[in-house]
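Lecture 7 notes: from sequence to structure.
We start with the chain below.
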Amino acid sequence: MGKSPAFRLLGIGGSLAFWIIGGTLGGRWIDTQLDSDPVLTLLGLFLGIAVGVTDAIRRLMDVVKFQERRSAKRKR
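Predicted structure tokens for the same chain:
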């Protein structure tokens, strides 16, 4: 059927960290290329947070739906 809910929740944290770190590092790299320190680093950080939180909410809703389906099967 799929991964256990614990692994799905770990994936949420990993994905959130990935987007935040990736956005920050990407913004930092562009800042060094354009000598615009720290404008794009901060923009990358906030963009990473926004994308990460959106992705985390979507993944969390998937875990909730999975648990609801699992619970409904057990009640039968």
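Points to note: The radius of gyration is 17 Å. Residues 24 and 45 are 4 Å apart (CA to CA).
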